[in-house]
């Protein structure tokens, strides 16, 4: 796993925080200094926290877990959607549907409704509908696709949440905390990092900063998925070798049994008559 350098973080503007008057005192350990009324984030701590979060995400991906990316702010949604698609992970970039985690069964019903509309649109019954009815169905399908299309393949609750801007996505964070789902997030100087299990102190408003951090997290997930695939291949090879060894040992045992049976069937050589007489006279 390649470690992000200090220069990369500096070039992306990850060190810029919010105005001093907007700060959250819980962010004090991650603030380096204040300049012109703006807090500057300690990038060495950002680096350390990024490595910690990347290792945790890699382990989750390695064990086949699903990570949900949440970023509905304008400068983050396109970047996050593109990177999440790269590793085939679910994401929410339009609007957080209230109760998506705490009321997951209802969200699944809405997703099933969307798939039901798709099937209906391919049937003959749809063709016989009026133009107005078709338009209503298409609009409903577009609305569902916009809000839930990116989580259509999420059949159960995600194992972790990655959030950009926990102030904006406070409902998502609250739901994850209620269900004890691990949370990863970019935390700025105006947020409370204690709400997050794996906080990454950095600028959550600049698109370059978001792209760099989310990109590194996605790389860690990709590495975990690759390791899982390689381990599966190794296990399969080992199993095949074990089966071959068992077959060979079974064949050897069968050949030994065949030899024993042949030896048992072989007739005993008759003792010569003269030899038998000589033995009797000697006695």
CATH level 3 topology of one domain: Rossmann fold
Number of E-state strands: 8
* Beta-strand fraction estimate: 5-15%
Shape: flat
Rg (CA only): 33 Å
H/E element string? Answer: HEEEHEHEHHHEHEEHH
Determine the number of helices (DSSP H or I, runs of at least 4 residues).
9
What does this protein look like?
The chain is an alpha/beta fold. The chain has a domain at 6-101 and 157-232: Glucose-6-phosphate isomerase like protein, domain 1 (Rossmann fold, 3-Layer(aba) Sandwich), CATH 3.40.50.10490. 55% of the residues lie in helices and 12% in strands. The strands form 2 sheets. A 5-stranded parallel β-sheet has the order 5-4-6-7-8, sandwiched between helices. α2 runs parallel beside α8 and α4 packs across α6. The longest helix has 59 residues, at 207-265.
What is the strand and helix layout of this fold?
Layout: H1 6-11, E1 16-19, E2 31-35, E3 38-41, H2 43-62, E4 67-70, H3 74-86, E5 91-92, H4 104-121, H5 124-127, H6 131-148, E6 160-164, H7 170-178, E7 183-187, E8 198-201, H8 207-265, H9 273-282
Parallel strand pairs: 4-5, 4-6, 6-7, 7-8
Antiparallel strand pairs: 1-3, 2-3
Helix pairs in contact: 2-8, 3-8, 4-6
Characterize this entry briefly.
The protein has 283 residues and is of the alpha/beta class. The protein has a domain of 172 residues: Glucose-6-phosphate isomerase like protein, domain 1 (Rossmann fold), CATH 3.40.50.10490. It has nine helices and eight strands.
């Amino acid at each position: 796993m390649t470690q992000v350098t200090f220069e990369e973080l500096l070039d992306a503007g990850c060190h810029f925080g919010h105005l001093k008057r907007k700060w959250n005192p819980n962010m004090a350990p991650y603030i380096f200094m204040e300049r012109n009324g703006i807090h500057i984030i300690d990038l060495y701590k950002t680096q350390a926290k990024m490595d910690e979060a990347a290792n945790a995400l890699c382990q989750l991906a390695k064990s086949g877990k699903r990570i949900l990316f949440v970023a509905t702010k304008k400068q983050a949604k396109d970047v996050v959607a593109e990177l999440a698609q790269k590793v085939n992970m679910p994401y929410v970039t339009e609007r957080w549907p209230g109760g998506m985690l705490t009321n997951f069964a209802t969200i699944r019903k809405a997703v099933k409704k969307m798939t039901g509309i798709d099937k209906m649109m391919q049937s003959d019954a749809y063709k016989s509908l009026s133009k107005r009815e078709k338009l209503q169905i298409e609009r409903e399908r577009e609305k569902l696709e916009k809000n839930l299309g990116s989580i259509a393949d999420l059949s159960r609750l995600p194992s972790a949440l990655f959030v950009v801007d926990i102030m904006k996505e406070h409902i998502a964070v609250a739901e994850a905390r209620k269900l004890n789902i691990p949370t990863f997030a970019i935390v700025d100087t105006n947020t409370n990092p204690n709400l997050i299990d794996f906080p990454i102190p950095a600028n959550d408003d600049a698109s370059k900063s978001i792209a760099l951090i989310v990109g590194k997290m996605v790389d860690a997930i990709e590495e975990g998925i690759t390791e899982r695939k390689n381990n599966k291949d190794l296990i399969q090879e080992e199993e095949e070798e074990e089966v071959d060894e068992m077959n060979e040992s079974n064949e050897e045992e069968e050949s030994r049994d065949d030899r024993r049976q042949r030896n048992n069937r072989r007739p005993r050589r008759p003792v010569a008559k003269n030899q038998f007489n000589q033995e009797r006279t000697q006695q």
